[in-house]
Design a protein that fits this description.
Blueprint lengths: L1 H22 L9 H16 L15 H8 L14 E3 L6 E3 L4 H6 L8 H22 L3 H17 L10 H18 L8 H14 L11 H14 L2 H17 L1 H11 L19 H8 L3 H18 L3 H22 L10 H27 L3 H6 L4
Antiparallel strand pairs: 1-2
Helix pairs in contact: 1-5, 1-6, 2-3, 5-6, 5-7, 6-15, 7-8, 7-15, 8-10, 9-10, 9-14, 13-14, 13-15, 14-15
Length: 386
């Protein structure tokens, strides 16, 4: 198995190298409207620090937005009110940006004019690190095969379709870490692990700072722990739900703060238009998702989750499978009924599910191996009465 791990480590690094080489030739003036807004948010953070949360056009006194719009040949580049992803507040007092602040914040960590390339290169390296960790952690042929195949897929997705939006790069990193911690939560339910559960909640909340739609990534978690409390009615499940909720609240604070600054209320977002329309079934949208390259991966994830629930001998893994299935179903149902199709919309839930299922498989196989081997000497010693 070591030879196989070395081989696929080389494959992962080869894909990573290819990705970074492609990224190094990217330009920040590629004509994508959302890019302008993320870069303007980064510019505001670099100029004003945390006060960059205020995205009012009244602060556009250095011509940054106009110059960016002009660089992509935007027709009304002189008129900020015509700029993409900017909208007028409900009271008509100012024009603000619609995206949340997280993507702009991570872009602001890099020098202006050279922000997208290092962000994607770093995110690719981190994802490759998770893939390598899963590969070398796998100790059984089945788990190794899954780690090898899906590890390669996860690195490839960091270019296509992740390149479609700057918000996807940091989202993918959060999904990988949240998936790892979620799997770890359920590998031994004898321990409450409230701090780890709060950290998972914080990561899910933080993901909404990159894309508002990422708030849906937490839907299955709240459904699972909410139903668990209604069924069991005990202190343990109450504390688990409370920890998750408090962590989520901490993670989503940047979004609430940005809403307060720009819209005047923490729960009022600047988003509008198609993003806030009521769900509806559109055959064209459904066909687009069915024909997308992610659809076979989604089918495999559904099958994988079902197999985890059906054949796992560990009750905690079966509970994890229920959480994953509920989260996947809720997210896919939302985007299938969304009024528009965009290739990267379902990528966050796909990757969160992938990492969770992968690490759950690896950890459960480890536990089965330990149980088959019998108690270790250290465990036997701990049972000796003193």
């Amino acid at each position: 198995m070591k030879a196989v791990k070395i081989l696929f480590s080389i494959v992962f690094l080869a894909i990573l190298t290819s990705n970074v080489r492609l990224i190094s030739h990217w330009t920040e003036s590629r004509g994508v409207y959302d890019d302008i807004c993320y870069l303007r948010q980064a510019h505001l953070f670099q100029r004003f620090g945390w006060q960059g949360l205020d995205t009012s056009l009244a602060r556009e006194d250095d011509g940054y937005l106009a110059s960016k719009l002009r660089s992509i040949n935007f027709e009304n580049w002189k008129d900020g009110t015509k700029a993409p992803c900017h909208t007028q507040t409900a009271d008509g007092s100012k024009w603000v940006m619609t995206p949340p602040p997280g993507t702009g914040f991570v872009l602001a960590l890099f020098p202006e004019g050279f922000q997208a390339i290092p962000l994607y290169a770093l995110a690719n390296m981190i994802i490759a690190g998770f893939a390598l960790y899963g590969l070398w952690r796998a100790r059984h042929p089945g788990a190794l095969a899954l780690a090898a195949s899906f590890g390669a897929v996860s690195i490839y997705f960091m270019i296509n379709p992740a390149k479609a939006s700057y918000s996807i790069a940091p989202t993918m990193v959060v999904c990988a870490l949240a998936g790892l911690l979620t799997a770890r939560l359920f590998d031994d339910e004898d321990r409450p692990r409230l701090l780890m559960l709060a950290l998972v909640g914080a990561l899910l909340g933080l993901s909404a700072s990159f894309r508002i739609a990422n708030v849906l990534l937490s839907a299955g978690y709240f459904l699972f722990f909410g139903v668990s409390f209604l069924v069991r009615r005990d202190q343990k499940t109450f504390m688990q739900g409370l920890s998750l909720g408090l962590g989520f609240l901490v993670g989503i604070l940047p979004v609430l703060a940005a809403n307060m600054v720009n819209s005047g209320h923490p729960l009022v977002s600047a988003y509008g238009g198609q993003d806030t329309q009521a769900p509806s079934l559109d055959l064209a949208v459904l066909r687009a998702y069915l024909g997308d390259t992610q659809f076979p991966v989604i089918l495999l994830l559904c099958l994988w989750t079902a197999l985890l629930w059906r054949f796992s001998s560990q009750f905690c893994v079966r509970r994890l499978a229920l959480l994953v299935a509920g989260n996947l179903a809720l997210n896919l149902a939302f985007f299938a009924t969304h009024p528009v199709f965009t290739q990267y919309y379902t990528l966050p839930i796909v990757m969160l599910t992938l990492w969770t299922a992968l690490f759950a498989t690896i950890f459960s196989r480890e536990m089965q191996g330990m149980q088959a081997d019998g108690p270790q000497p250290s465990e036997m010693l701990s049972r000796v009465p003193i």
